[in-house]
Amino acid sequence: MSCWFALLKKNYSAWAFQFQIFVTGKDSWGHVDGRIPAPNKDQEMVAHAKWAVKNAQVMAWILGFVDSNIVLNIRSYNTAATMWSYLKKIYS
Predict the structure, then answer these.
(1) Any bridge partners for residue 7, and if so which?
(2) 13-69 pLDDT tens trace
(3) What Pfam families does this protein's entry cite (predicted)?
(4) In contact, 42 and 55? CB cutoff 8 Å
């Protein structure tokens, strides 16, 4: 039985640990910590398209693991890495 919980204002440390394990298990942590940057869209169209799909997937995970009030604060970010940076800065 899983025990996932959403990020609230005061549980960042436990939430971040849980989320990192989840995303690492999906072989996608590089999209969160920025180690996998977007390929140049004009020069590497196929690679960029694949990156964009994975980035959107990770962004969806982030949105699904935060309180609905927090979603309003991160909806303007367009990468998982920028969402993560914001959450870390504000809630850690």
Answers:
(1) 66
(2) 999 999 999 999 999 999 999 999 999 999 999 999 999 999 999 999 999 999 999
(3) Retrotran_gag_2
(4) no
Number of independent structural domains in the chain: 1
Predicted pLDDT at 1: 40
Cα dihedral 59→65→68→74 (10° resolution)? -30
Q: Token pair for residue 71?
A: 């979603």
Q: Where are the alpha helices (DSSP H) in 1-92?
A: 12-25, 29-33, 45-64, 68-74, 80-91
CB 9 within 8 A of CB 91: yes
12 inside domain? no
Q: Which domain holds residue 57?
A: 18-37+44-91
Using 50, 70 and 90 to split pLDDT, how confident is the model at 2?
A: low
**The token pair that represents 12 in the structure block:** 């960042």
Cβ-based neighbours of 5, under 8 Å, separated by 6 or more: 11, 14, 15, 18
